[in-house]
Amino acid sequence: MAATCQVTGAIPGFGHNISHSHRRTKRRFDPNIQKKKYFVPSLRRSVTLQLSAKGIKVIDARGIESVVKDLLARGEKI
After folding, report:
1. By Cβ atoms counted within 10 A, which residue in 25, 30, 55, 61 is the most buried?
2. Residue-wise burial string across 54-71, b where 16 or more C-beta atoms lie within 10 A, e elsewhere
3. Which SUPFAM superfamilies does the record cross-reference, listed alphabetically (predicted)?
4. Confidence label for 1 from pLDDT (cuts 50, 70 and 90)
């Protein structure tokens, strides 16, 4: 599963783990991706989205209809 949010487009960030002796090794900061199912009345079906925690908050604020409309306009498969 790719660690990308379908709503916000959040992708992993990269950086370093820094040990006590200050040696650096590469690491990855993954967004908090969740699978969430929503019922969309205009499509008359449920859709499953891969969302970050911030993406869930965006849907709560704007509504699923508005977000799905933007995803479809962007050409994303739902």
Report:
1. 55
2. ebbebbeeeebeebbeeb
3. L28p-like (SSF143800)
4. low
Place of tokens 């690491």: 27
Express each pLDDT in 23-37 by its tens digit. Answer: 999 999 999 999 999
Residue 74, φ and ψ in degrees, nearest 5: -75, -10
DSSP labels, the chain: -----TTT----EEEEEE-TT--EEEEEE---EEEEEEEETTTTEEEEEEEEHHHHHHHHHH-HHHHHHHHHHTT---
Contacts of 19 (CB under 8 A, 6+ apart): 25
Give every CB contact of residue 77 below 8 A, 6+ residues apart in sequence. Answer: none
